[in-house]
Design a protein that fits this description.
Layout lengths: L5 E4 L3 H9 L2 E6 L5 H12 L5 E7 L3 E4 L4 E4 L3 E7 L15
Amino acid sequence: MNKLIILKPIITEKVLASQQAQDKYSFWVSPKANKNQIEATFKSVFGINPLAINTIILKGKTKTNWKTRQPIEKSDRKKAIITVTKGTKIELLKLNTK
């Protein structure tokens, strides 16, 4: 099995505060990965069965290099929002609030 399906978690204040309250986690995943592959990798890495997996493909933007005035095409990215059972937390991705 390809280990590079889940590339990295999305760790921003907005994601951690709003989605973790709803027992959801966001990850950047390989653009060619399907939901079954994402689920199997998530189970093997974290040991948690996900309830639902939603995927979103974000289209790449066209930027301009202002020095050479050449357009730069950014690649498309795929995001997976994984819902886990209520009360289940991933300790590495937990928001510490005091």
